[in-house]
Amino acid sequence: MDATTGIPPAVTEETEPFWAAAREGRLVVERCSSCGAESFPPRGICRRCRARTMEPAEITGPGRVYSFTVNHQRWLPGLEVPYAIVLVEFPGRPGVRVAGRIRGCAPEETAIGMPVAVGFEPGPGGFAIPSFLAVPDGGGS
Ligand SMILES: [Zn+2]
């Protein structure tokens, strides 16, 4: 599995801390220093109180699959299909949902609610992109 095929992300002032942390294998979102609301993707402005005093906040996971799609379309030459893209949410962090590929399970085994660990893999243009790792469910919920 290789995710380096594709278009490099556009880096803005707001998303730069995210990409910098991603290179170190850390998932960083924005937290408002005025009201504490967290959001992702980064916008540089709080969606709750409109403050512009956003600071980085690290998320360690694990998260859970909120929704997912399985892509069977070879959009670009060299793209391996099928693969699953998951949208992951984190307990106690309602403003944050992060999309990424999933590893450690077959695309057809991806399920809503399954636990995933935060991870990254090399993406286009030398960026590290979110790539979640399926966590075997120990029977708890
Ligand atoms: Zn706020």
Automatic annotation (TrEMBL):
Pfam families tied to this protein: OB_ChsH2_C, zf-ChsH2
Q: Where is the ChsH2 C-terminal OB-fold domain positioned along the sequence? A: 58-120
Q: Which domain of life is it from?
A: Bacteria
SUPFAM superfamilies, alphabetized: Nucleic acid-binding proteins
Q: Which Gene3D superfamilies match?
A: 6.10.30.10
Ranges for domain ChsH2 rubredoxin-like zinc ribbon: 19-55
Q: Which InterPro entries match?
A: ChsH2_C, ChsH2_Znr, NA-bd_OB-fold, Thioester_dehydratase-like
Question: What's the protein called, per UniProt?
Answer: OB-fold domain-containing protein
Per the UniProt record, the source organism is: Actinomadura chokoriensis
